[in-house]
Amino acid sequence: MKKSKKIKKLLNKGFRGYPVATIAYYGPDDKNATKVAVGIVPSEDAEPDILKRWFNEAIDIRKDRIISEEIIQFIKENKAKSVVMTDRIMGCPHEEGVDYPDGSKCPKCSFWAIRDRFTGEIIQ
User: Domain spanning 5-95 has what CATH number?
Assistant: First the structure.
């Protein structure tokens, strides 16, 4: 997965304790990311208590230097000791119950309608 050198440097430090920053990319298919969500997990077995999302439909968001810098700043501001990132695009950038009704498939992302978002495998 493409990532900025500065984000890669944070990832390479490994687990250094909590809070942990989680980075996940989303897109209309498994090649182009249009959304990134960064959560701050305060402790083991906790849900993120802070979450921020960025969007860019013009270019793959992983190549957007401004957003990469904002992600790094967000991680520093929230004093994350560790950073983890998904190894693939994690599915549709639209949110069930927000962008389309709960229990249905996203009408804008037909690629993900028949795929498992974690593996990318066709499930139909």
Answer: 3.30.420
